[in-house]
Prior knowledge:
Chain A has 302 residues and is of the alpha/beta class.
Amino acid sequence: MSARVDVRKTYKLYIGGKFPRSESGRSYEVMAAPSGRRATPRFLANAAMGSRKDARDAVVAARKAQPGWAGATAYNRGQVLYRVAEVMEGRRAQLAQDVRDSEGLTPARAEAVVSAAIDRWVWYAGWADKYPQVLGGLNPVAGPYFDISAPEPTGVVAVLAPQASSLLGLVSVVAPVVVSGNTCVVLASEERPLPAIDLAECLATSDVPGGVVNVVTGRTAEVAPWLASHRDVNAIDLTGAADAPGVEWGELELAAAENLKRVLRPGGSGPEAVEPDFEPTPGLSRLSAFLETKTVWHPKGR
Amino acid sequence: MPTFEYAPAPESRAVVDIASSHGLFIGGEFVEATGGKPFKTVNPATEEVLSEVSEASADDVDAAVRAARTAYTRVWSRMSGADRGKYLYRIARIIQERARELAVLETLDNGKPIKESRDVDIPLVAAHFFYHAGWADKLSYASLGENPRPVGVVGQVIPWNFPLLMLAWKVAPALACGNTVVLKPAETTPLTALLFAEICQQAELPPGVVNIVTGAGATGQAIVDHPGIDKLAFTGSTGVGKMIARSIAGTRKKATLELGGKGANIIFDDAAIDQAVEGIVTGIFFNQGHVCCAGSRILVQENVADEVVRRLKRRLGTLRVGDPMDKNTDVGAINSRAQLQRIEELTAVGEKEGAERWDSGCALPTNGFWFRPTVFSNVSQTHRIAQEEIFGPVVSVLTFRTPGEAVAKANNTPYGLSAGIWTEKGSRILWMADQLRAGVVWANTFNKFDPTSPFGGYKESGYGREGGRHGLEAYVKTGSEQ
C-alpha cells in the first residue's frame, strides 16, 4: 500500500483580508532550518516575494480598516482578539509543524513555543479594555475644569517582525500594536515566513476585520525602506531589523523622520541590533509605543 | 461704539537689574565662552539693546555636557528622590519670591504683555517646579514600568515664545527623575534662563545639574550631535524637529519633540457666541499668536459665520495693542524682526491667493516690531494661510455645515497639536473630541495649561508629552532598558 500523496499549501500574502500572490509575480524558496542529522537543506515552500507595490497596497488596506477597528468598543476588540487565540489553538498542529521546520526545534519545543504564542495573544487581548485606565485618567488641574487624558491608537504601524522567533516573536510584536486600535503592515521574518502566513490564516478565519493585520513576505531589505518612508504610515517597529540581511536600522529611522513617524528601535545597544528574548511576560512598553495621549479640557460651571 | 481711553499703567523696570553682558552657566558658575561671537538681545517693543550674550561653541557645549555628566554620576543620580524633590521645592519657592522680577525681565526680552508674563507664564513656571518636586520620590508609583531610573544627561533646546515656561517644562521633570541637563534658550530670549541660573545658585543646586548655554542654531546642533547626550527635548518648529529626528537616527538617543501646529477652533451654531468670540481671541491673540497650539483656523458653522465674524471684528477693535510693560496692554510686540517679516510675508500671500484681509486698524508704536490683529475670511483649505503656521496674530476663517465636515477640515493638516470646540451640546463635544486628531482639545475654553495636564502633539506636531504623569515617561528608563 502506497503512502497518500499529501495536499500542500500555497503560502501567499495577506492584504485587506485576502490572500493575493505578489503583484510582482515573484516567489522565493523557503528552506527548513538545519536540525538533527540532516545534512542537505530541505525545501519547505515557495513564499511570495512581496514588492514595493504590495507594501503600498497593504498600507492602503491598513488605512482603510483603521477607523473602524479603532472605533470598535474595547470589549469588542478584546473578544475579537481572544477569538484569534481560539483559532490558533485549533490550528496547533500546523503552527507547531511550521515553527519546528522554521526554527529547527524538537517537536516538544515547538509545541511549547506555540503554547507560549497563544498565551501571549490571550495576554494582550485582555489588555484591550484595561490599558486606557492604567495609562490615562483625570488631571487635577488648578482651576474649575474637567481635564482628562486618554490614550488613542497612533494609526497605521509598519512592523518588522523578528527574524528568529517566527511565531512567539511575531505574536509579541503584532498583538500590542493592534490591541489598541492600530492597524498594521507586518513584514514577516525573511527566512522564516511560514508561521506568519499561518497566523494570517488564523486572523482570516476569526473575526478580525480585513486590513487590520496585513502580512507581506519577502526581502526585508527591499521592502522595509518603502514602509519607513511611506507618508501614510504613522509609526514603525524596527525589532525585526536585527539579523535581517542588508538592513541598517539607522537608515530606516532616518527615512521615518520625514513625517516624524513614531519609531520603536530594535533591541541592543549602540548601533548593534539584537533580537530580544520573547519568553518573559512583556511590560506595556510595546503597547504604549504606538499610542498617542489626547487631553480634553472642559470648564465646570453652574 | 464708545472708545475707552486708558491712562498708561506702566510696570516699573527698576525691579530688575540687567547685566550688560552674560557668560555661560556651566558647572554651577558663570564662565566666559571660548571662541563664539557674542550677540545682542533686544527689547522687541523698543529695539533697545538689553544685554550682550555669549555664543557657546561646540567646545563650550562639550564642557557643559561633561559638567552635567559628572554631576549626574557623582551626585544627582545617587541622591534620594526626597532630596532631589527638596531642591525643586526650593527652586519653586524662589521663583515665587522673585516672580515680579522674572515677569518684568520676560516682558522686556520677549515683548509679551506684562499681564501675561505676570499672571500666566511665571505662576505656571513656579507650579511646574512645585508639581514635579513631589514626583521625585514617587516615581515607582507612576506606572512608568518596572524600576524607573534616570536616562542620564539631557539636552534641551527651547523656543522664544514662552522662554521661562518652556525651561520649566523641560528642566523640572528632567531633574525630578534624576537626570542632569544642558539647556539652550532661544537666541532672542536668553535673559530669564540666565536669571534662572542665578536661582539655581541661590537654591544651592549641586553644580552641573543645570547648565545653560546660550547661542543660536549652531549651538543647538552641537547639543543634538554631542555623543554624551542621552536624551533630547526640543520645542520649536516642525522643520527643526525633523532635522533633530534625522540627526539622532541610528543612535540610542531618546527624543521628545513638541513642534508646530495649525489648530482648528470649531464654532457650532448653538455655541454661546460671545464666549466663543472670547475663545477665538484667547486662541489666537494670546501671546501675539506666538503659540504652537494657537487656534489659528476658525471653523465656524455656516449659518452663524457672518455673525461670529462681525462680533469678532468688533471685539478686536477693543484690543489694546502696544507697550508690553503697560498693565492694560492686551497684545504686545512681535518677538523679532525676522518673525515680523515671516508674518508679513505669509499674510501677503493670503491676500494674493484671494482671501479677504481685515485688521483692527489700531495705532502702532513707531519703534519696535508690531502687527495688528488680523482676520482673513473667505479662506479655503488649500490657501497657504490655512495650511502653514504663521505664528502671529493672524486668524483664518473657514466655514462648515455638518459636524462630519468640521472634523474632516480640522484634521486636514499634517499637524495635530490642538483643537477647540464651542457648542452647548455635551454629547457633540465628546464625539468631536474623539474624532479630532490632536493632542489637546479644549471644549468651550482655549489655551489653558497646567503642570498636571499632559501636552503634546499627534502626527507632525511631534511626539512625547510634557506635563502630568505622562511627561515623566521621557525622562526615565525602565525594566531591562540599557
